[in-house]
Structure formats: structure tokens, C-alpha cells
Amino acid sequence: MTILFIVITIVLFGLLIAVHEFGHFIAAKLLGVRVNEFAIGMGPQLLSRTRGETTYSLRAFPVGGFCAMEGEDENSDDPRSFHNKPAWKKFIILVAGAFMNFVAGLLLILILFSVAGSPSMPVVGEFLSGAEDIAEQGLLPGDEFYRIDGHRIYFRNDAILFLSRAGEDVAIEVLRDGERVDLGTLHLPYRIQVEENGQQVLKRGITVGEVRETGPLATIRNVWYQAIDYVRMVWMSLGDLVTGAVGIQDMSGPIGILAIAGEKGQQGVEAAGLFGGMVNILDFVALIAINLAVMNLLPIPALDGGQILFLFVGGIYRLLRGKRMDQKYLGYVNMIGFFCLIALMVVVAISDVTKLL
Hints:
With 357 residues, this protein is an alpha+beta fold. It is 52% helix and 20% strand. It is elongated, with a radius of gyration of 24 Å.
């Protein structure tokens, strides 16, 4: 069963790559840029067909893809080259891939919520034994968390996550009877609780209920909230990486992603059968789609964000020098960035294999 979920994830991951590159492709075509090749995958060609001016190809390794536009990395005299188009057209073409990934993520979340329901809302349930004093600080059962330490709370998992990352003093804002109520800073220390099996655990003293919203309008709103939540998760992960809270060993490449997909699918099967496994896979792939949208816009050479950065740098250069920057320099930087990216992927892949072994 795990192998089945890995295969499904590979197929869906390939579709996400196709969607991303199709975003660049269709934007380039609509804005009059010549596209030499539209490829899904990297490495040697498996299949190819040329129609008009564009070669469409499928390559061996399903870990990327590209939309090769005339004059993208080098100077070109072709009036339809990417290099000779105005900056606003270049910008639209460059962001189109990430935009399509974000739209794909929204559609996947919509499908997921339509068949499995929206996530539980962040409603305060009850106070655990020994934590009744929390009510004296103003927090009441039935309140819905709105902000925790300044972070907007959309779903039950958000409340659990940000409470776990907070200190003993937590700034809390809730929705009560439809009105926002700022409770200020509450003292919510961890307390020792005894489980049914006799094991002692540390808990905040608050339970967060399993209340779900229903109806088409609530579903559409929650689809948007979930997408924004995934964007925030990506930024939090990057922040943890920069601050050293996590290291490279905690990152996952294609190998690690497939392993996680297999585990999530199997966990879903154990909880709710094949349906549960597919729900978990759909949720995971939706997260990957949003992740791709965000990561591709980072200002790193060889990524779309790096190209956008150089678009602005080229604009400033032209403003100051009165001429365009030579495209060969952009090609050099992109080449260096590409090799650095490949090196990072190799390191992460080795880490993934080590963790699996």
C-alpha cells in the first residue's frame, strides 16, 4: 500500500511541475515570446515532438522541468526573444509558474475539503483538572482563538502549533459571540497531567475542540485560509532554518518527500481505510504545491525569484548606465546558482537516504 501512495505522489508531483512550467509557457505565448522547448522532467529526453517553433519533450528524471525561451539567458536579436520584451512582460512570465502552482494548491484543497470536510475550528473546549484558574483570566469555553502571540489562528491545528511555540505568558485574542475580544497576556504554564495509562505528561491545561464549519461559503473561505496557512508554514520553516532551530538534516528532497508521502498515506489507511490514505496524500500534495509557489519566488539564482531580482537589478543598471546589462552575466550567475542548487539537492538526498537506512 505504501508503494501505491509513493507512485501516486510521483504522478501528482509531475503534474505540479507540468502546471508550473505551463504557467511560464502560456504566459510567454500570450505575450509574444518565442518558446524553443517546453520540457517536463530533467536529464535525457525520453520523448519529444516539435510543433511549430516549439519542441515538447518528456525527460528522464521527474524532479523539474523547464520552458526554454529565446533570449532568456543570452543576448538575442530575435524581436520575439525574452530579452527584448519590456520588463512588465518579463515579470508576468516569471511569476506565472508560481501563480499556477498556487492555483493548483487551491484546487487541491477545495477537492479535499469538498470530500473530507474543512478542518476543525480553534474553539476552546474545557480546562483540564488543576487548570480551572485559566477561566479567572478571562478565557472561556466556547471562545474561538483569533490570534496567539500576534499570529492569526484559522484552525484547531494552528492553535495547537502556536501554543506549543509560545512561552508561559501568551498574548491571546478570541472571537466571542462574533466579537473580537483582546484578553491581553495570559499566564498559561505547562502543568503535569496524568494520562489514563498512568503516564505523566506536560500540558497547557486547555483542550481545543473538534467543531467544524459546514456550507459552501464556509468551505470556500476555509480553502483560502488553508492556502494562507500553508504559505505561513513555509516561511516559518525557512525562518527556523535561518535561525538554526532546524538544520539541513531536517530538510527533505524528492527522496524524503516520497518517504513522507508513503508514511502519511499509510497512516491515513490505518485511521480510515483507503479513503483516509488518499485524503492524506491530497493534503500533502496541496502543501507541496503551495510550497513550490513560495520557494520558486525566493531571490535565489536559478529560481524564478532570482530572475525577478535580476530583472530589477537590470532595470536599475539601465537607468544608471543608459544601456542594457549583457545577458551573458545573468547566464553566468544562473549557472553558478544552478550548480549550487544541485549540490544542495545532493546533500539533502544523501541525508534522506541516511535517515531511511
